[in-house]
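Journal club side-thread
Mid-discussion, someone asked how the predicted structure for our own chain would compare to the paper's figures. Pasting it here so we can look after the session.
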Amino acid sequence: KERFNISDLGRIKKHIGVHYEKGSDEYGTFYALSMDDYCDKFVNEAKKLCGIIKAANTPAFPGIVLTKALEGEVPIKEPEYRSLIGTSLYLIRKILPEAANAIRDLSQHLDNPQPTHWRSIMRLAGYLKRHKPRFYLRKPNDWKIIAYTDSNYATDSSDRKSISGMIVTIGGSTVSWASKKQDIVALSTCEAK
């Protein structure tokens, strides 16, 4: 304040579409991050394009692997699909780590979305409709870094590449997450991991 003209606006309430609410529980104080208006926008847009959105417990259909469209199949509402995927990518970067794999899978079909891809969009919208996601920022208990990672072997039938996922915590607080298709084709489950 001595060198620069700074105004104190108090506690953070909203920044780049993310709402911050301070709270406390048995584990201490936290900031709850939410994007309810952004989630509602996604759900309403999906409802307008797809019809009825049923509430869902998971962001994707368990055990279902999305595949590329067959040659000659015409894309269905490609610009709208791209728009919804862009919206969902912003959500996972800010508050929605549990949907990272589902959205990674959906984003691989931007050029030729088919009915199965739209059903998966509806499932994601149903998840957002039911859960109103929150992401909690807490002061770390300690500075112990723990990283969890896993991969599957050659899930994508079109190119036989494996998918890797990871989450990193510091003192019990999540700081980073990702779901990514590997760059190379693994020849064994050991190599995939």
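Post-session note: The mean pLDDT is 83.
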